[in-house]
Design a protein that fits this description.
There is one protein chain. This protein has 190 residues and is of the alpha/beta class. Helix content is 42%, strand content 22%. It is built from six helices and seven strands. The protein has helices spanning 11-24, 37-44, 64-74, 113-119, 141-151, 162-189; strands at 5-7, 30-33, 54-60, 84-88, 90-99, 125-134, 157-159. The strands form two sheets. The protein has a five-stranded mixed sheet, with helices on one face. Strands 5-6 form a two-stranded antiparallel ribbon. The longest helix has 28 residues, at 162-189. Mean pLDDT is 75; it is low at 114-124.
Length: 190
Amino acid sequence: MFSPLQLQFHLLQQADNYEKIFSHMKPNSILGLSHGFLLGHLQSAGLDFPKNISVIAVCPKGMGPSVRRLYVQGKEVNGAGINSSFAVHQVLSVSVSVSAPAPTHTHTHTKDPSVLIRGYFISLTLHIFILFCVQDVDGRATDVALGWSVALGSPFTFATTLEQEYKSDIFGERGEFSSLFCYYFTTFLA
């Protein structure tokens, strides 16, 4: 039996305490997040999650009070919970290979400079492979994330990535709040 660590700290507390939290996590443990902002903070610092842990997120599409209210209501009304997204952190892996055939020295006896240049030309072939590897150290991450979503009472759970989740929060939820604030200010106070 295992118990995933779930970070339910305020955004600023996560940014201030992630090093301490990571240092106390055992290998093969699961870090559970309710939003992706910690990934955004780590990326802005040029960092990532430790490689020896799994990182998941289950992100209800509403505020805490509405998640709880709809969870309680879901006990009486089937499907009354709040929808969630889930993610297993993806790690970018880039592989680069360069291959060069042996140089050819044909027509080196001629005085034509274009032939000499062609004779010493080495062709390089560059292959770049970009892979997104799921950070799931022992194969349990997706099952744990989906189980967590069911436990929240989510009637519908859709897959996303941690990066897409925090960017949609920043530009969606936070942007909508800013728009509403501007609308309120210009309508009622101006």
